[in-house]
Amino acid sequence: MKTLLIGEYREGKLLDSTYELLGFAAQLGAETAMLLVGSENQLPLYGGTLYLADAAACGEYNPDLHKKLIIEVVQQENPDYIVFLHSSYGWDLAPRVAVALKAAQISEVIAIQDSGFEVGCCNGKMRRSVKPATNKTVLTVQAGAFPALQPGGLPTVHKITSAGIGSLEFIGYEPAEKKDVDLAKAEVIVSAGRGVGKKDNIPVIQALAKALGGELGASRPVVDAGWVGHSHQVGTTGQNVSPKLYVACGISGAIQHLAGMKKSDFILAINKDKDAPIGEVADVLVVADVMQFVPALTAKVAR
Amino acid sequence: MKLLVCIKQVPDLESRFKANAEGVWYNEADLAFRMNEYDEYAVEQSVQLREKLGEGTELTVLSIGPDRVVEAIKKALAMGCDTAVHVQDAAASGKDPWQIASIIAAYAKDKSFDIIFTGMQSQDRGSAQVGVTVAELLGFACTTTIVGFEYDNGTITAKRELEGGIKGIVRMKSPALVTCQLGLNIPRYPTLPNIMKAKKKEIIAIPVADLLREESLAATTSFHPPAKKGGGIVLEGDMADLVDKVIAILKDKTAVLR
């Protein structure tokens, strides 16, 4: 069994998440080759075969060209699986490769099973087992689902390139908004989720944060709705945190949120839904109405 | 200009899910359905573009599924879509993303759409494949996970959301397809006059057999809850009692409360 792993590179750097692909391949017990559109100055610590295209020539985000590069390498290597991370790079590129190969694509793999792969569904509440019906299969693996593996050594590099311009013109990056709060340093974070109900209820969550000597965090929907500023957002597109105590108030626990807070030392979740995925990572799940429980807890803590 | 927005109807995600008789997807009994949240942003963006372009532009909304999806179609019409297509398929939930995308592409291929909008993924299946696959099948330029969209004279400038709050700015020419991320805009609530107006708009029904040419490429073999990891305590019951228990646990297990 053979895998072609598609590494990630952005703003002139190899992304560490690339090593999660090696972790996945090791669990699968498969041979590996890697393809990276990156730079000779940023080689992965991996002693296998690396097909390397120059990002300066092929672009960091140019899916048409990257697809062509991948297809050419697939024809040489003949892998059973072409493996991406389920990331803004991977979920954008994987379907293009799958269509070109007319291969099955299985998205957001979280576990390897005897005859297929397990993926999340229903906002992370449920799971599906999926079995491909094609010879080659395109996979995207969930960030954080497979522990990073850094085998060490230096790769045997095969340089590849592709001509043409592609249908997208990449203009540039816009940096993340400036943070007015550094959640990474907080010892206690009390986060508000959609279950809080409305913007007017945010001070209730803030009061618990204050009583515990912590900072206010938030899940994505709360930030999108404008209830709390983006600098408070915890998760893949916000900040990754690992405080001593994380209190999730009315947060169901989307994968992207869990990825950003599951390394916290102790997790207390308050949710009216007993089956909410936040329960998977919580040390304690209190099944209650957030707006009843939180003020009562704050009053007791403050005393 | 011709615009298309593709939407899916999904269950309320706060529901409890049980497997269906085949054990490969959820049982629909007792579930309340609504428009996929990502698609609300797609509809809003397409309606905003429709309003900006004015006369001579037609915005079509398309959904695949059983009769219940007409409710989601009606909402999109009330938000401002001009016309609708219901691809009738009582067995849509059993199709893989490749088949769903093939159905949409089969419908769209001779309609000369300029821009197609989709959500970046569905909340229930969550494959994030259908939009990109449709674009590839039609030969459209495509970018995903957009949180910013501008259109000017055949050129789209889109802002993609990347990890860590960074954004990537991309430009492309129509025909093009974009997949919309949460936070792209503020989806409107349909007003009562617009709901009434929407009742007069046409919904064209097409049996799925007219558009489906492809076999599935992957099969779901099981639908099940996550394996319990253990360790976590679930507390329920009287409020004052819950507070006392939680205080005791925090004192015992964390250095935060003394």
Could you outline the blueprint of secondary structure elements for this entry?
The complex is a heterodimer of chains A (303) and B (258).
Chain A: E1 2-6, E2 9-10, E3 13-14, H1 18-28, E4 31-38, E5 49-54, H2 55-58, H3 63-77, E6 81-85, H4 90-101, E7 104-113, E8 116-121, E9 126-132, E10 137-141, E11 156-159, E12 168-174, E13 188-192, H5 202-211, E14 215-218, H6 220-224, E15 245-249, H7 255-261, E16 266-271, E17 284-287, H8 290-302
Chain B: E1 2-7, E2 9-11, E3 33-35, H1 37-53, E4 58-65, H2 70-79, E5 83-88, H3 97-108, E6 115-119, H4 130-138, E7 141-152, E8 155-161, E9 167-173, E10 176-180, H5 192-198, E11 203-207, E12 218-224, E13 233-235, H6 239-253
Parallel strand pairs in B: 1-4, 1-6, 4-5, 5-11, 6-10, 7-10
Antiparallel strand pairs in B: 2-3, 7-8, 8-9
Helix pairs in contact in B: 2-5, 3-4
Q: Your description of this structure?
A:
- The complex is a heterodimer of chains A (303) and B (258).
- With 303 residues, chain A is of the alpha/beta class.
- Chain A has eight helices and 17 strands.
- Chain A has helices spanning 18-28, 55-58, 63-77, 90-101, 202-211, 220-224, 255-261, 290-302, and strands spanning 2-6, 9-10, 13-14, 31-38, 49-54, 81-85, 104-113, 116-121, 126-132, 137-141, 156-159, 168-174, 188-192, 215-218, 245-249, 266-271, 284-287.
- In chain A, strands 9-8-7-10-6-1-4-5-11 form a nine-stranded mixed sheet, sandwiched between helices.
- The longest helix of chain A is centred in the N-terminal third of the chain and has 15 residues, at 63-77.
- The radius of gyration of chain A is 22 Å and the shape is elongated.
- The N and C termini of chain A lie far apart (62 Å).
- Chain B has one domain: 3-Layer(aba) Sandwich (Rossmann fold).
- Chain B is built from six helices and 13 strands.
- Chain B has helices at residues 37-53, 70-79, 97-108, 130-138, 192-198, 239-253; strands spanning 2-7, 9-11, 33-35, 58-65, 83-88, 115-119, 141-152, 155-161, 167-173, 176-180, 203-207, 218-224, 233-235.
- The relative contact order of chain B is 0.17.
- The model of chain B has no long low-confidence stretch (mean pLDDT 95).
- At the A-B interface, helix 4, strand 7, strand 8, strand 9 and strand 12 of A face helix 4, strand 7, strand 8, strand 9 and strand 12 of B.
